[in-house]
Amino acid sequence: MSASAKEAQLQRGIVMFNVSIFATHLRKSAVSGFGRGLCARYVRQALEDGGADTAGHPVSAKDWGPTLLRIGFHPLDITSIDGFVPEKGDVAVIQATSTHPHGHIQAFDGKNWISDFVQAAFWPGPAYRRETPPSAVYRPS
Question: What pLDDT does 15 receive?
C-alpha cells in the first residue's frame, strides 16, 4: 500500500492492524512460569501495539468477543479445538471455569498460544483442560 493510501485511511479513521507487531509484543511481554493472572491486560496491550483501538474494552477476559469483532476480527467456525490449526494473530476467548471466573484470553504468535505467559497448549491450565469451557477463536480480517 502506498504512503498516500495509508494517509487516506488514517484520515478516515481506519488503522491497519499489524499482526507481526502484535505477535512480537506478545512474546516479548510474556512472563516466566504461569503468568500473573493478567491475560486480558497483556493481550490488550499487544493489540494496541499492533494498531487496534481497544477503547471501551471489557475487564474480564471472557467478555472480549464483542470488542474483537468491533476492531475487525471475525469468529472462526471451529467444531473441535483438537484438530484446529491456528494462524499467527488468532485470538482465543475462553469462558470461565469454576476456579477462574474471568475466563481467559490468549493469542497465537505463529508458534505458541500466549497470554501473559507462553502456554504449552491451547488450554492454559489444569482447570481449563479438565472443564473445557466454551471458547471462541477470532482472526484478524
Answer: 61
Closest C-alpha to 33, from 136, 115, 99, 104: 115
Based on its alpha-carbon atoms, the radius of gyration of the chain, rounded to whole angstroms, reads: 15
> With helix as H, strand as E and coil as C, how does the chain read?
CCHHHHHHHHHCCCCCCCHHHHHHHHHHHCECCCCCCCHHHHHHHHHHHCCCCCCCCCCCHHHCHHHHHHCCEEECCCCCHHHCCCCCCCEEEECCCCCCCCCEEEEECCCCEECCEECCCCCCCHHHHHHCCCEEEEEEC
Whole-structure pTM value: 0.89
Q: Name all domains of the chain by residue range, CATH numbers in brackets.
A: 15-140 (3.90.1720.10)
At 105 the pLDDT is 98
Reported as a single tens digit per residue, the pLDDT across 54-71 is 999 999 999 999 999 999
